[in-house]
Every structure is written in C-alpha cells, then in structure tokens.
Amino acid sequence: MIPFLIKSAVSLIFLAAGIQYWRHGTMTKEGLSPNDPSSHSHPEDCRLVHLDLELNVDFNKHIFSGFAHLTVEKHKDGVDTVVLDSKDLKIKNVTDQSTGQQLSYSLGDKLEVFGSRLEIRLPTTNGNKLNISIEYETSPEASAFQWLTADQTAGKRQPYLFSQCQAIHCRSFVPCQDTPSVKFPYTAKITAPKEITLLMSAISTGSETDSSDSTKSIYRFEQKVPIPSYLIAIVGGDLESRDIGPRSKTETMLKTAEDLCGPYVWGRYDLLVLPPSFPYGGMENPCLTFVTPTLLAGDKSLADVVAHEISHSWTGNLVTNKNPEHFWLNEGHTVFVERKIQGRMNGEPLRQLSAAEGWNDLQQSVVDVLKNGPYTKLIPDLRGVDPDDAFSIVPYEKGFTLLYHLETILGGPDEFEPFLKAYIEKFKYKSIDSTQWKDFLFSFFQSKVDVLNKVDWDTWFSAVGMPPIKPEYDESLAVPCQELCDKWSARSDSDLSQFSANDITKLTSNQIRIFLYKVLLLESPLSLIKVKKMEELYKFNDRKNSEIRLKWLLLCLKAHWEDSIQYALKFVNEQGRMKFVRPIYRALHAWEGSRDTAIKNFLSKRPEMHTTTAELVAKDLHLGSS
C-alpha cells in the first residue's frame, strides 16, 4: 500500500572575502543553555520569533538546501549576538536580510548528540527585532530525516522522505533555537520534483510549477500558531488522500476534546500514515499527525493513538513543556485527556481498564527495564543526556497517575475538569515548567490548599521508582482475564484438556492483551508445553494486532520456544515502531539461544531502520553506535 494521507475536512475553526569567521573552543556539556540542558541557545538574551524557510529538496543527494530567514528579538540591552542550535549543517553565508550585509558568525565544535553552537553577530540597529538570512545545506545523514528509494516504497513509483524532529533533531534540518521553550510561527516555500507531493505541519497555501524549471513544483505553507521547533515536520512522496470527515470518529474525538480543553486553534486535522519504519505510534505535528501503519492491522490502539495525538493539540502543542526534563507536562496531561475522551465515547469502565493497564505497563518499565533508575523520576536530570535515551513510558503513565490521583482527592471530574480547561487557557501559546504548573494548581484550588499540601510532591517529582500511591481503578473488565490466567497457572502440563478455543471468543482484543500480560507476570513462568498448547488453541501466531503479537511473542521467548524466534524476527523486520521492536530485541538478547541470531538480524537490517530506532536498539543489544 502506498503511504497515504487521511484527510479530515474539519475546520474547527567558507565565507566571502573580508567577512570575519571565528571559532570558540571545544563546547562542553556544561556550556549548554542553563534553561534547557539539550540546547546551546540562549533565548533569554535573543529569541527566535518567526521562521521563513526557502528550500529545495534533493532526493538524489538526500539533502535540503536554501535559506532560513529568521526574525529574532533582543530581550536584553547590550546583546549583540544570537545563539542557535545546528547539527551537521553546512553554513554557507549569513546576511542581514534588510540590507544584504554579510554577518560574522561562529560555529562551535560538535557535541555528538547536541550538535554545534551557531552564534551570529547581529547587525547594528536601533530596534529590538532583526531579520537575518542563513544560507545552508543539510547533511545526507541528518538525524531528522529518513529517506526511502522508490524501490523501498510499496508503490515503487517515487522516493519518499519524512522527518521526525522530536526531541532535538530539528537542528539537523534548520538552524534554530531547538528548545521547546521557544515557540514561533513559520512559513515555508519548498521546491521538489513535480512528481512528489509535499506536506508540512502547517496549512498549505498553494503550489505552482517552478517558473525556472518546469520539472519542479513549489509548495507553500503557513503555520500561524507559534510552535516549538520539534513540531516542524515535512513529508514528501507518492501520497494518496482519503476524505474521512466531517462525519467521522475523528471529528467526534475533536469535539469531545474541545469540550474538555477549549477551542481547536489549528484549522485542520489531517492524519498521515507513514512507512513501517516510523519509530512511534504517532507524532502530533500540528495540522498533520503522523501515525504508524501498524494501526491499520487492527490494533486496539488505532482509536487510542488518534485520541492521544488529537489531545496533544492542546496539551503539548498549545501548552508545552519548557524543556525535556518536564516532558511529563506534555505526555501525562495528554494521556489524561486521551482517556477522558475514551471514557466519554466508550464508557467509564473502558477508561478504567486502560488506566489499570497503563499502571501495569509502567510497573514493567520501571522495575524490569529501567531498574528503578534515574529515568524513572517524573522530572529527571537530563544534563548531558540525549533525550531519546531517556524516552520511556514514565512521563506518560506516572504523569497520568499523578493527575488521576489529584482529580480523586480534589473532588472528582466535576472539580478537576474545569481546572484542566483553565490551565490550558492560562498557558496557551506558552512553554512552562512543573513549578509554574504546580503554582497554578494551588491558585486554582485555593479553597483546597490543605488537601494539596498533603501531597508528597518531592516523591512524586523527584523520587525514582513507582508512584507513591496506586489509585483504585475499576478493573471489572479485567476479571475474566485474571481468571483465565489463574486457570492456566494452576493446571499441570498433563492436565490441559479443559482449555479450548472458546476460552477467548468473548474477550475483546484489549482483554486478550491483558490476559497475556498477566501470564507474563506469573512468578512461575508458563511452561513451554503450556505455551505450545495455547498456540494450538488460540492461534496467536496468526494475529495481526501488533499489541497482541508483542505480548504473545514475549511470552514465547520467555518460555524459550525456538520456533518463536522466526516469528519475532518477522515482527521486528516488518515494522519499526520502538514500542514493539525494542522489547522484542531485548527479549531475544536475554535468551542465549536467540542472542546471536538477533544481533545478526539487526546488523543486516540496520541500514533500513530509522536512525533513532537503530541507535537505541544497538544499545539494547549492547552494541556500539554507528
């Protein structure tokens, strides 16, 4: 199937002679911004307030080249430079856009993860706002992009590219202040071969044939709402579209989210199904959500992922964490809103089941994967740390648990949902940290400060491990899952005749997944005989649902079933979603009987994998970086 766009027609609402070029000494991790441990920039001195891109995309060389026109604003007297983030960019020239005067700049030494500090000497002017133009070229190895040849696509007609700028990869696409504390609107004019369709995280304002080259087309975009750099996105290829609005589940989700969070400000909401190598379930790019094609295989998460990414239109995109250490403000609130939507559309018991399952997933990640380490803190210390390395379920589920707990002790949804809407209204178009969030919480619930003072905030924010309190979820929908798990656990290997295919016919895909999860957690692992019997009756190897396949394959590998290795490798080779790929590779590596096969498979497939996925799987397999 050709990657396609699902459209929802919802309108809710090196330098020239004589120009100085200077270099600083080696930049250390301590030399990064004091406000964001992942950025070189200093927006407190001079801030990016508008970006205009004028670029040409070259599918043969795998590069973008052209200009980034930046409007910057000085915030302090005496400031004469602006500091940007840059990673593997070839800077050709920097000029004052108003006069054409060439500007001096320095490009610091590269830090492997964080790139280089690009410091530009500002023109002398009486005003605080200045316009500068940077002529540059991206690297073919830019971490923001994945390039596919035509033969690597299902349609095999045109090449394909897509970006993934979160967390700190936009600096390999655009010289910018690559920190979520800086938000800015942007416009773009992108030239590409006429056979290619281009889309961005913005509203299309038209396209036309390039007057200087009839084999190319020029696409224009505008994003009027200020966004952080990680939300700049672009995709190009042989795209097809389907209009699924306005009478679609997507629109219902949007309207439900509006009721919870306030007006939708982004104009359009489109879904783009990306190639299988896309490393995430979804990416909340404004106006153009990216989603994994695994959702088309009947995953339970189709509705959940869409609800999650829609929720980001408010929590994350409209109100944004100030730096990656406060990532829970984005993801914890988004899971909270996602499950609110789920409850309103499908009933409260399903929301409760989802929350309980989230707790189980959090426990597995915190205890088994992260070993109660520093990245299990809700607000981790990320100085000198690649945010991709710290990425886990913790900010999602630990953040959700805190919000759910607060809702419970503050009087329930009737009390807490107005706070949610007021919080978004208060901080929309801004980037904040956890202290600002907490201060607003206390100010909103002035009559319940005594309740809030009893919350162990230091433990919630700064302690490793699981949350200090486990909410009492309604797990009635999980009862048949537990009963079937207990039945399999209790029977001996020679007494399995009472099981049949009918055991799971009345279970939903969510419940089957929970059943498998509970079996995985048994203190005495299921025997290989029982696992084989389960496959004989339930035919899990035939399932297309990726969530079920993940749990089933982990169970098989835990039982050391040699036949499962081929199914596990097939699973990780046919899609690149890290939620599935990394646990399978870790399980393959943990078993000596499959370790060498897993490493050999990874090394052969690495060139086809997304850069982020490949780097993290290499660490899971205890291999060096590329």
Notes on the protein architecture:
It is globular and about 85 Å long. Helices cover 35% and strands 20% of the residues. It has helices spanning 249-261, 301-311, 328-346, 348-369, 387-390, 394-409, 413-427, 434-444, 449-453, 457-462, 479-490, 509-520, 528-538, 546-558, 564-574, 578-590, 592-605, 611-620; strands at residues 4-7, 46-58, 63-74, 81-86, 90-96, 105-107, 116-121, 129-137, 145-148, 160-163, 184-193, 197-200, 203-209, 216-227, 234-237, 240-243, 270-273, 282-283, 288-291, 319-321, 430-432. The chain has 18 helices and 21 strands. The longest helix has 22 residues, at 348-369. α14 runs antiparallel to α15 (564-574) and α14 runs parallel beside α16. Residues 1-18 form the signal peptide. Its cofactor is Zn(2+).
User: Which percent band covers the strand fraction?
Assistant: 15-25%
Report strand order across the widest sheet. 5-8-3-2-11-14-13
**Backbone structural class:** alpha+beta
Low-confidence stretches: 1-30
Distance, first to last CA:
31 Å
Radius of gyration, whole Å:
25 Å
Helical run tally: 18
Helix percentage range: 25-40%
User: Largest sheet, if any?
Assistant: 7 strands, mixed
Give the CA-based shape: globular
Please provide the count of β strands: 21
On the 0-100 scale, what is the average pLDDT?
A: 92
Enzyme class: hydrolase
Family: Belongs to the peptidase M1 family.
Protein name: Leukotriene A(4) hydrolase
Main location: cytoplasm
